[in-house]
Amino acid sequence: xxxxxxxxxxxxxxxxxxxxxxxxxxxxxxxxxxxxxxxxxxxxxxxxxxxxxxxxxxxxxxxxxxxxxxxxxxxxxxxxxxxxxxxxxxxxxxxxxxxxxxxxx
Length: 105
Fold this sequence. Notes:
The chain is mainly alpha-helical. The chain has helices at 10-20, 33-39, 44-53, 66-70, 77-104.
């Protein structure tokens, strides 16, 4: 049985099957941020804590001190690293998107 603070490692597997099923697949862009954090391996409580700290939107964490995030209950260095990597990927995506706009102009 899972302890309350442990992540549910089947969340990612279920998500994959929900978005790839042939009948009525789930649109991954409609899933809330709490669920997305859980798919990344955060426990339900850590996801709630992060979103409360971010005032409901993880984008509010951009530019924040990650030591403050690390101090949240249920967080550890691996979770903070996942957030940093997530923001780095978002940054790269935005940079790529801007480059595509400039190339098409």
